[in-house]
Amino acid sequence: MPNKIYPMLIGGERVRSKKTCDVINPATGKVIGAVPEIDSRSIQKVLTAAEKGFQLWSATTPAKRREVILRYADLLETNQPRIVDLLIAETGKPRDNAEYDFGMLTTCLRFFVEEFERLDQPVLHDPDGRFLHYVQRQPLGVTVGMLAWNFPLLNVGYKLGPVLASGCSTIIKPSCHTPLASLEVAYLAKEAGVPDGVVNMITSSDHDAVKPLLQSEVPSLVTMIGSTRGGLEVLNAACTSVKHFSVELGGNAPVLVYPDADITDAANKVVDLKFANCGQVCVSPNRCFVHESVYEEFVEAARQRAAEIEMGPLVNEKARRYVLALVESAVADGAEIVTGGNAVEGSGFFMEPTILRNVVPKMKVASDEIFGPVLPILKFTDKDDEIALANDTPYGLAAYVFTTNLSLGLRAARDIKAGSVCINEPHYSVQLPHGGLKQSGMGKDCSRYSLEEYLTLKRISVLID
């Protein structure tokens, strides 16, 4: 029996193409479905549809948009069981992880509806008293979202939430590795009453096939969640006309563990975040710097915690080979395996949770983004500038600090070059801005700061004297 084909959604219609791309369950290695490979005809069709969708949705009152968006969130929750099952099948995620992924989608839809109502449109001072000046916010236009595979529905929520609340329209391309649950979410937008063309979703495994979409003058905003290399390709392709950009790219998150920290608590929290989603998290701890005086205590506590971890698979065999090669390279350069280090035999793309000790900054495992279940633990001393060690990377997405010394914590928060710094506990939430510095991107997801990127900032002056 042939695998089910999940069509694209363009202008409210389910669209197929001659070529398809298989979707593989990484827990079994088996094909579970297929999606169309978009062609040039469909690229032009989706651009036209999105323009029409924007005209309709931007002219819809905020009150009516709110009604439709909240109905959409409710409809998604009614269909949660089958969507989560599909998400598990295409990602291999444990159920609790998949339910979190789904939950962030509906959370984003509801949050941005409320956040839109909290936007200010201030009156500005006129020194001569001759004019009334005020700021007006209006929907920006057609947006394009290029999304990663690690949290498919969370990533969709990060884009759909502000798109729908602001009055924009969107063309979303989920990763070809994990497009199925995202497409089901898009189909339900039409059922919820979102006008045709407001939410469009396309699929492709060929980056060149999507370039005409990025090169078009139709999109006003291009957003992305993915690697820095992929981000540079998208930016380069899209810079054929003036556009807005918001891209969350690669990371190499440092952790600083000071000797006064609660070492067991720090180890537990670092391990829990490191091995969440099999290490395939953009803000995952990548370089764990621990003071020499508590190094052995931390390593042992981390080893014990890792023994309790249950993980899903890596996304594919290529990703697993890459991570295993990083471990092999580190060991060849003098690192030691504390636990793990091997692929798990059997079907799927599983790997043991792995901890490395005696890692030094020059090793590839400490300088490259791992995006897998490997925790390198490095040592620093009183003679080292630990902030400089943390900043010794082209990336700047997230960082973590563990200390009970208020001055140390605040200094680290001030001086570490990252889009977010968490002291004593990793924490992320939809109301908090999320984005990177340096080569980790520009712009924000989540929070009011994300919503503002989907709106114009127009100054209006009215002569009153």
Low-confidence stretches: none
Number of domains: 2
Helical stretch tally: 15
Shape: globular
CATH architectural group of the largest domain? 3-Layer(aba) Sandwich
Beta-strand level of the residues, as a percent range?
15-25%
Number of strands: 22
Largest sheet, described in full?
A: 7 strands, mixed
Give the spatial strand order of the biggest sheet: 14-15-16-13-12-18-19
CATH class of the largest domain: Alpha Beta
For this structure, the CATH topology of the largest domain is Aldehyde Dehydrogenase, Chain A, domain 1
Structural class: alpha/beta
Rg result: 23 Å
Instruction: Specify the CATH homologous superfamily of the largest domain.
Output: Aldehyde Dehydrogenase, Chain A, domain 1
Helical content band? 25-40%
Distance between the amino and carboxyl termini: 77 Å
Question: What would the average pLDDT be, to the nearest integer?
Answer: 97
What report would you give on this structure?
The structure is a single chain. This protein is of the alpha/beta class. The chain contains 15 helices and 22 strands. The protein has a 7-stranded mixed β-sheet with strand order 14-15-16-13-12-18-19, with helices on both faces. β3 and β4 form a beta hairpin. α2 packs antiparallel against α4, α2 packs across α6 (180-192) and α3 (80-91) runs antiparallel to α6. The mean pLDDT is 97.
Quick structural summary:
The chain is α/β, with parallel strands linked by helices.
